[in-house]
Design brief:
The protein is an alpha/beta fold. It has a single domain, classed as 3-Layer(aba) Sandwich (Rossmann fold). The chain contains 6 helices and 7 strands. A 7-stranded mixed β-sheet has the order 3-2-1-4-5-7-6. α4 links the parallel β2 and β3. The longest helix has 14 residues. The chain is globular, with a radius of gyration of 17 Å. It starts with a helix and ends in a 9-residue tail after the last strand. The chain binds S-adenosylmethionine (SAM). The site of S-adenosylmethionine has 22 residues, from α1 and α3. Keywords: Methyltransferase, S-adenosyl-L-methionine, Transferase. Its EC number is 2.1.1.222, 2.1.1.64. This is Class I SAM-dependent methyltransferase. InterPro entries: Methyltransf_25 (IPR041698), SAM-dependent_MTases_sf (IPR029063).
Length: 227
Amino acid sequence: MEIRDFFDSAYSTPERYWWRQPNIYSLSPEDHAGSLMTQFILRHARHHGPGRALDVGSGEGADAIRLARLGWEVDAVELSGNGVRKIQKFAREAEVQLRIERGDLLTHPFRHGRYDMVICNGVLHYIQDKETACRRLQELTRPGGINAISLWSDYTPVPDCHRVVPTFPDRERGTVYQAYATWSKPLLYFERMRVEQGHHDMPGHLHSFIKMIAQNVYRPPEPRKSS
Ligand SMILES: C[S@@+](CC[C@H](N)C(=O)[O-])C[C@H]1O[C@@H](n2cnc3c(N)ncnc32)[C@H](O)[C@@H]1O
């Protein structure tokens, strides 16, 4: 099955597929105790904004809507047409303005300049060519801006229930980590064997993740250890 068809189907019902917990649009970091990434994004957005943000693979727009509620100017780009329609609906209900486009991270023209924050949350394990994907995220980031990235690591195998589409988890210090070798990393953690609670349409299963906030500030790469 194609990834776009998979998510078109996942987003075909009116209720949320992701983020069904209460307070999803809360701007208070304490309301997101299950996600260090969300806490970091909110704290950063409060202290360094309002600025311009791009949420790529934005799903149903939860990250994008939170940032817009903080006064940020937010663009959302999503592969699934049903996803785009749900972002439009949820943004309307949350009374925020977003610029929403349907597109693929690898080929979208991205015509609206560079951003202070680029979020790519849960997307890169659907993309095999991670070098190009990361380069595009980086080219879209202003000096000093941040990329907020979450993807599956190969610390645990892809659960059988997810094997309906091709997926490409990365090594914890693999292609994605290496692509950001010269960026500083205010947050990097490897979340292992986390019980999936974000969606409810599959039997119970686990994922392992790479979670990284990388900042477009030069940091010399660490010397390779000699063997
Ligand atoms: C796991 S969901 C995460 C959604 C959202 N970022 C969130 O955290 O709630 C992954 C999303 O990435 C989108 N996606 C997958 N491959 C993509 C690509 N190449 N370009 C843009 N979006 C993509 C899917 O359609 C899906 O909505």
